[in-house]
């Protein structure tokens, strides 16, 4: 007997799509760790997260009904709920409740006579109201970079999306892998990379492909680093009314716990409207080169500025990384987002393009 019926397979796929898992390869890779070894051994990396989701659910559905596989399904459902949006979490919770009799623990009603004056819950997370205004001003420097696909020196179909931001009045920084405009793990040839960079445009007013400004053309690929996954682009003209973001070169202490240090990310996920991650956004770790954090991002956010509550740049967001033993908001987390620290990028830039480095705006 199979682990899942056809209707249960369909319901799992629907719940995963509703929860956004079909758009996150990192989440699916983390969930794969919860599969029993016999099922996980059959898993093959797919070119898109949508295909990966179909394969993973198919492997679960076609597995034999056994105690080990039942436990793997239970753990996969719990992990999928944790990684999903609120709507997907509710769907996965309902599936788990039917299958395993699991449900949310009831909350005892509060006796009004026991109410207290207002309290700070753990630590004070409020910010000045001007935080919103300063964030809006910072967002003006962030744009969606649209990269044409060139193969063998000739224009191909499709285009790639990333996020870029003003490092100086005439220069933006983004992730090099966004300019490669290839599936994960693949790179454009040096010639194609150069043509794609010159053919890219940065749109600072962008609400998706159907609603956008004309964008600013790229004049030159000034410098790029595979190690830092960073690229500096010179624009044809300085976009009017948009100030470069300030870079923060202060030393960063390692966070003592999940409440001590947060970062905010303005981004263009999947080439869609500009969005900001600033709610569940604790920093996990700091190294000489990298910053690890739980701030939400999605494909297309590569190149986004990772900022503190003063809207100064601390890192260049580039992707996600598997982590072990991390927990956040009471849940065990198998991965964290990661960015290249701006201190490392500016040290590199000073060596390869000192004239650009000299024009960078630093935090007051």
Structure description:
- This protein has about 375 residues and is an alpha+beta fold.
- It has helices at about 5-20, 25-30, 35-40, 50-60, 65-85, 85-100, 130-140, 175-180, 190-200, 340-350, 355, and strands at about 140-150, 155-165, 170-175, 200-205, 215-225, 230-235, 265, 275, 285, 290-295, 305, 315-330, 330-340.
- Strands 8-7-11-12-13-10-9 form a seven-stranded antiparallel beta sheet. The chain has a six-stranded antiparallel barrel with strand order 1-2-3-6-5-4.
- About 40% of the residues are buried.
- A hairpin with a 4-residue loop joins strand 2 (about 155-165) and strand 3.
**How many domains is the backbone divided into?**
3
Order of helices and strands: HHHHHHHEEEHHEEEEEEEEEEHH
End-to-end Cα distance, whole Å, is: 66 Å
- Report the strand count: 13
- The average pLDDT score comes to 90
CATH architecture of the largest domain: Beta Barrel
Helix count, DSSP H or I runs of 4 or more residues: 11
Main beta-sheet annotation: 7 strands, antiparallel
Rg result = 22 Å
Strand order, sheet with most strands: 8-7-11-12-13-10-9
By CATH reckoning, the class of the largest domain would read Mainly Beta
CATH topology of the largest domain: Thrombin, subunit H
The share of residues in extended strands comes to 25-35%
- SS class: alpha+beta
CATH superfamily of the largest domain: Trypsin-like serine proteases
Shape: globular
Helix content: 25-40%
Unreliable parts: none
């Amino acid at each position: 007997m199979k682990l899942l019926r056809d209707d249960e397979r369909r319901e799992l796929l629907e719940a995963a799509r509703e929860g956004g898992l079909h758009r996150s390869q990192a989440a699916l890779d983390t969930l794969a760790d919860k599969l029993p070894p016999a099922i996980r051994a059959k898993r093959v990396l797919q070119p898109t997260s949508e295909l990966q989701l179909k394969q993973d659910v198919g492997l679960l559905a076609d597995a034999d009904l056994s105690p080990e596989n039942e436990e793997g399904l239970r753990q996969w459902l719990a992990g999928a709920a944790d990684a999903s949006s609120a709507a997907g979490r509710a769907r996965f919770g309902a599936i788990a409740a039917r299958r395993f009799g699991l449900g949310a623990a009831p909350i005892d009603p509060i006796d009004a006579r026991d109410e207290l004056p207002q309290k700070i819950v753990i630590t004070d997370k409020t910010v000045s109201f001007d935080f919103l205004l300063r964030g809006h001003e910072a967002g003006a420097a962030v744009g969606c970079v649209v990269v044409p696909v060139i193969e063998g020196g000739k224009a191909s179909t499709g285009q790639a999306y990333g996020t870029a931001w003003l490092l100086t009045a005439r220069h933006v920084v983004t992730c090099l892998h966004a300019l490669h405009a290839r599936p994960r793990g693949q790179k454009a040839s040096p010639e194609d990379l150069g043509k794609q960079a010159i053919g890219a445009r940065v749109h600072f007013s962008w609400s998706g492909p159907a609603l956008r400004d004309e964008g600013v053309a790229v004049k030159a690929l000034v410098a790029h680093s595979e190690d830092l996954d960073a690229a500096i682009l010179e624009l044809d003209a300085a976009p009017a009314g948009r100030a470069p973001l300030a870079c923060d070169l202060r030393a960063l202490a390692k966070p003592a716990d999940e409440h001590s240090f947060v970062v905010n990310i303005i981004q263009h996920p999947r080439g869609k409207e500009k969005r900001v991650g600033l709610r569940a956004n604790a920093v996990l770790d700091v190294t000489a080169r990298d910053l690890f954090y739980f701030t939400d991002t999605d494909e297309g956010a590569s190149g986004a500025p990772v900022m503190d509550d003063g809207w100064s740049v601390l890192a260049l967001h580039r992707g996600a990384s598997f982590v072990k033993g991390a927990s956040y908001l009471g849940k065990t987390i198998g991965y964290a987002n990661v960015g290249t620290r701006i201190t490392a990028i500016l040290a590199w830039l000073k060596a390869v393009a000192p004239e650009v480095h000299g024009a960078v705006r630093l935090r007051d």
